Amino acid sequence: ITSLGAGSNVSAVYHHCANLLDKDGRTRDAIIILEKAIHQQGIECKSALIALCVRLLDQVGEVDRASEMLSRELERRNLKHEGIGFVQWASMLLGQGQPDEAIRLIDRAISRKGMTKLYTLYLIKARALVTLGRREDAMTTLREGIRDTRIKDPVELFRELANLTACEGEIEGAVELLQSATSHPAIRDAAP
What is the rounded CA–CA span in Å between residue 36 and residue 34? Predict the structure, then answer.
């Protein structure tokens, strides 16, 4: 693979090789290939390689290694779309039963300038708070997300907030909330 040189095509080749190895049950070999590619100079589009490597590390139970990789790459700003990295990391932490860590990470991510995937970060934070039995805090988080002007389409936040409201037995409140979403400036149907 190295003889192909560098660039986005090489990145795609590494990505495909790793996927094939994983499908063949050779996940650890896939991780080795991805790690080599991530550290190879001149390769563009490392975000997809990092995301796949982190997913595979998580898959084989190496959560600490996956977290270290995401942390290192986010600090270097090697992820083209940082939001994806933060979403993946927070989801991994939540899945591993570490909701407090996921919340701290998300708070850090939300405060970053130019962050992408904000609505997903707010959703994960709300789910982490629910996991901790902090349903009211989860609802507050979703309301904050709805008010965050950086989010272009908060419809999923409205849906999650309505679901939590309904779980509290307040069906009418959930319906009213969803109806109020139709007047939110960021929510609109596509033109016919």
Answer: 5
